[in-house]
Amino acid sequence: MGKIYSSAQKTIIWLGPGQETDKSTFRRARFGALLYRTKEHLPNRLDGIFRKTFHPFTSKPSHLSAFQPLCANPWFSRIWTLQECFLGRHPTLQSDHLQLSLSDFAEYWLFLDITQGSPFAKATPHCFSRISSLIITTHFRSLAGTITKHRKEPLVTDVRAHVDNWWSFRKALPYFLHQAAFANTATDPRDKVYALLPILSRFLPEFSAFPADYTAPVAHVYESFTRFLVSQTHRLGFFDLLYPKTPSVQGLPPWVLDVGGDTSGSLFVLVGGAMCFYAAGESEVDIPLFEASPPGELHLRGARFSRVAIISEEIPKEMDLMIDVATKYIGWLWETLPSTMPGEERARVGAELLVIVKNKPVMDRLKEGGRFYLTEGWNVGISQFEIAEGDEVVVMAGGDLPLVLRRWEDGKSVFMGPTVVMGTHDGEFWGRERLVEELDAWEVV
User: Which InterPro entries match (predicted)?
Assistant: First the structure.
């Protein structure tokens, strides 16, 4: 279907016979889209004035009551229809004999969201997911398009000339794919993967997607997709999206991206901006070693940073005030640190703890069973996963966040989850001269 959408002159999206209010809704949508495009050219300081000016107009009950039935259409929540959005030319919504361009619809939704705020987004959940996917993909498409435009050689040989765009693209790819998969429904969970492959081939024609196989177990499809992401990007960005919840499918290895699962509480926010983690700098995965990994395992190169030495109790969910969290865990820290530790070193460790505590997005994610811990080198770390004293903290080539691994007697390491540990986040541990081929090989299960 992807090829059909791409070759068509126009894509008509049939929403059904429609509602009596669709005519007025489509008319308002064109006007609202025009206002939204106008707003985009205004200085940021005028955002408040724009919102106050149009809020009385958009907050009328008739606006939401007319728009909600349209947003509730099943088309907005089906994963296969994403291809119509992103591969079709001039995608156009059609309700009965009425037509509205998808871009006008999206901009009208954004206009209403700006002027009404979060209650509007909550009232139209399917549209919120679809518009979010559209916004993410617009950025994603522009990154991919910029790289493709300037690339005459195969992808890997021409990366260096456009490293900033390529870097952003690789970091955005796992997030975009998971958002698109999780926010949309599929009758068969395998379609959470298969429906997205034609979209990827459009963005980057060099991608060689693996064939769809509906006889394969879902866990196998998700593992293949995770491996596909690594082989195409040479990065381990999907680790940042892993979250300790019950997987949506049985038999999923702990390091595999649960494409259909909820990762809204993952530590990805740290990579995206809250603390800007780049633990392994601009390094890449050792692809020959990775591709030799047997099923269920990851063979990677990395360097051990330290071991988990001391673990705090779980962070209470009811502890909302930053001052309460800081007081409780600074007290825990002073009780834990050896009395013989020099004052400057104690101050450093305390400062590391405060850096984490002062980040609200970070602390919000730690209130679901998260813990602080100290490494053998007295660095402060945080984890959402079940960790134990003696677990190893490892920075893998191609990764943004360090990993906690538990070594088995046979030399293999159990994947416990991504972690945040101070002293690694800005690549200071990794350095600039580290050669990937000289790093230790790790067998992760």
Answer: HET, HetReg/Transcr_Mod
